[in-house]
Amino acid sequence: METNKTFALVSGANRGIGLAIATGLARRGVDVLLGCRDLGRGEAACATLQKEGLNVRPVQLDATDDASVSALALLIAQDHGRLDILVNNAGIGLDHDASLSTTERMRRTLEVNVVGVARLTEAMTPLLARSKRPRIVNVSSELSSFGLRSKPDWIYANFAMPTYQASKAALNSLTLSYARLLKDKGAKVNAICPGYTATEATNFMGTRTPDQAAVIAIKFALLEDDGPTGVFVNEAGELPW
Ligand SMILES: NC(=O)c1ccc[n+]([C@@H]2O[C@H](COP(=O)([O-])OP(=O)(O)OC[C@H]3O[C@@H](n4cnc5c(N)ncnc54)[C@H](OP(=O)(O)O)[C@@H]3O)[C@@H](O)[C@H]2O)c1
């Protein structure tokens, strides 16, 4: 089975930061599966990249759906035999959705940002275990950092997005747990913060481009064997949990 290639799966890759991560990895020679809820949107995203000669392929992936995730694990096992890189990028934030109750916002957000990540990670673990260099990158947010949130002079000290921040704090906890659980398999499992980025999620208000946001995720997806595991980072360095 194509041993000299590197295979990556990026969730939520049809747009925004996920698409930029997938594009950046493909430009570095990685074969990238773009996990997309809507395959049609994935095909449209891939068409542009394929014109560049990049090895990208859209795959159906809804992180909240057991059947979707198991079907994808089977497809990767059949077509590639293993997975080298998993980027858990898919994420939502519903704190500003006034049409939903707080409990409904919490339920839906945790289902994607936490349960979805656990579901996808566990389904991909047997495939990652067959890689010589398994890497998992969880796309988190510094808004969830307890260390930063407890500093009154921190730039976002006055931010409060209860469901989103709770979900990313839980994602950080998953990062540490999987880093421990997968250590024996040589895996590096890390959380990254892409920074405040202009995407649909921020109504394009962010100050960074998706390409800038993708840099740190790509770096940690391609970590060498002497790289860290179980850390939370942004472009400037390590972040407190
Ligand atoms: N933008 C920022 O400033 C910022 C800062 C820190 C962290 N982040 C994190 O970065 C990641 C990407 O965000 P973004 O800004 O690029 O947002 P975005 O443009 O809204 O993209 C989110 C992606 O996640 C997908 N998605 C949503 N629910 C899903 C599900 N159940 N299963 C699979 N995919 C699903 C979306 O698919 P559809 O198109 O089908 O909805 C979309 O592809 C998120 O985890 C976000 O929390 C963003």
TrEMBL record:
Coiled-coil residues: none
SUPFAM superfamilies for this protein: NAD(P)-binding Rossmann-fold domains
Membrane-spanning residues: none
Keyword Methyltransferase applies: no
A GO MF term: oxidoreductase activity, acting on the CH-OH group of donors, NAD or NADP as acceptor
Keyword NADP carried by entry: yes
GO cellular component: membrane
Any Pfam family the entry gives: adh_short
Keywords noted in UniProt: NADP, Oxidoreductase
PANTHER family in the record: (+)-NEOMENTHOL DEHYDROGENASE, SHORT-CHAIN DEHYDROGENASE_REDUCTASE
Family to which this protein belongs: Belongs to the short-chain dehydrogenases/reductases (SDR) family.
Protein name stated in the entry: NAD(P)-dependent oxidoreductase
Organism, scientific name: Methylosinus trichosporium (strain ATCC 35070 / NCIMB 11131 / UNIQEM 75 / OB3b)
Lineage, top ranks: Bacteria, Pseudomonadati, Pseudomonadota, Alphaproteobacteria, Hyphomicrobiales
